[in-house]
């Protein structure tokens, strides 16, 4: 599905709205503006209203007229986020391999901070996203009213995604028996962090892994990284001895346990952290190191949303508009990431976005118009 077809299938929450004819135009303008690194709706509208850009949009993108700012904001507020998300997921399928089998999918949530502060927002917007670590592409998201509702939102997202054959990695909040069950039912595997929310599980893994008498029985691997005065040692231990887990039969398909120790030396100071894991198929220590690192890929995407597109400063007091802009920003990041991958370039996202702003014709290349 190409980007224009993606727009045409989006529905609004208000049927027969006078703004319905503008949905495709508003989405096109907003995604193109986001691709240019314009983080505020006022900047995006001002850019699109420029005589030269308006002519470019009319001649190349099917945007014959630029809606007023108030109309653009009204449209963003009435687009159905669930419809936009489903269209997003269908479009993303055109960027992905025919099968995701063997790939790592990282799942995590992010709160849009401004929605905590706005009296006119009737809920704090928390978006739970799935991200393919090796490709750097988001493949879907669902919203939750707050971080406390992230656990059921993750399960809902798993049901939406085609993740058969994937390895799902997630943080300690989602180390839940029911979540494990949903992942296995979807034909995927899991690597989940066990922390204080599962104290019995964490303590049993910790006691076994740190027991000196069983060290020779564990699979072991380590990596050392040096970067700008920062030294990081990562050590991993894995075992298939799941008998140490109390009530192990309650954890669907659990097949192994492990731990990763991170020691970081920076400016003469040392930090030492342990993270404990359960997984649904036997893993070597090298594999656990790989999957533990992949868990952070979704955090990188969240960082890009905040640093380059200033999501946490978005002041829309309309919940639908906040959710829709989150999906639109991820669309822009996916396009840039896929463009970099296909061309094999290492240019920073911010520099690429600046080049699109300076030379609007370069947008035609990235969108394939």
Descriptive terms for the model:
369 residues, elongated
Task: Tell me what the structure shows.
With 369 residues, the chain is of the alpha+beta class. The protein has a domain at 190-289. Helix content is 43%, strand content 20%. It is built from 15 helices and 9 strands. A 9-stranded mixed beta sheet has the order 3-2-1-4-5-9-8-7-6, sandwiched between helices. α2 (23-35) packs across α3 (41-49), α5 crosses α13 and α6 runs parallel beside α13. It is elongated, with a radius of gyration of 23 Å. The mean pLDDT is 90.
Mean pLDDT score = 90
Task: Output the radius of gyration.
Answer: 23 Å
Taking strands numbered 1, 2, ... along the chain, how are they ordered across the largest sheet?
3-2-1-4-5-9-8-7-6
Distance between the termini: 14 Å
Strand content: 15-25%
> How many strand units?
9
Order of helices and strands: HHHHHHEHEEHEHEHEEEEHHHHH
Proportion in helices: 40-55%
């Amino acid at each position: 599905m190409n980007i224009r077809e993606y727009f045409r299938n989006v529905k609004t929450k208000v049927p027969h709205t006078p703004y319905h004819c503008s949905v495709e135009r508003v989405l096109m303008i907003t995604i193109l503006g986001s691709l240019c690194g314009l983080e505020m709706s006022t900047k995006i509208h001002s850019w699109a209203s420029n005589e030269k850009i308006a002519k470019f949009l009319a001649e190349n993108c099917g945007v014959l007229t630029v809606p007023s700012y108030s109309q653009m904001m009204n449209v963003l507020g009435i687009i159905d986020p669930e419809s936009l998300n489903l269209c997003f997921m269908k479009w993303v399928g055109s960027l992905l391999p025919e099968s995701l089998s063997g790939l790592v999918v990282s799942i995590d949530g992010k709160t849009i901070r401004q929605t905590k502060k706005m009296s006119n927002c009737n809920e704090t917007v928390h978006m739970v996203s799935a991200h393919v670590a090796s490709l750097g592409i988001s493949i879907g998201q669902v919203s939750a009213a707050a971080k406390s509702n992230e656990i059921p939102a993750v399960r809902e997202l798993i049901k939406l995604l085609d993740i058969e054959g994937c390895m799902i990695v997630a943080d300690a909040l989602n180390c839940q028996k029911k979540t494990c069950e949903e992942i296995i039912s979807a034909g995927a595997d899991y690597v989940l962090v066990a922390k204080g929310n599962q104290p019995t599980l964490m303590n049993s893994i910790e006691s076994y892994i740190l027991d000196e008498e069983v060290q020779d029985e564990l699979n072991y691997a380590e990596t050392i990284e040096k970067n700008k005065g920062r030294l990081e040692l990562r050590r991993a231990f894995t075992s298939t001895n799941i008998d140490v887990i109390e009530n192990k039969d309650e954890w669907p398909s659990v097949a192994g346990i492990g731990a990763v120790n991170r020691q970081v030396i920076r400016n003469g100071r040392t930090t030492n952290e342990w993270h404990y894991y359960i997984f649904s198929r036997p893993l070597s220590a090298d594999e656990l190191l790989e999957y533990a690192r992949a868990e952070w890929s979704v955090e990188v995407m969240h960082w890009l949303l905040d640093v380059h597109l200033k999501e946490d400063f978005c002041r829309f007091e309309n919940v639908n508009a906040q959710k829709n802009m989150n999906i639109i920003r991820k669309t822009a990041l996916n396009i840039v990431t896929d463009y970099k991958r296909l061309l094999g370039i290492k240019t920073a996202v911010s520099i690429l976005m600046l080049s699109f702003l300076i030379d609007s014709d370069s947008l035609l290349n990235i969108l394939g118009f």
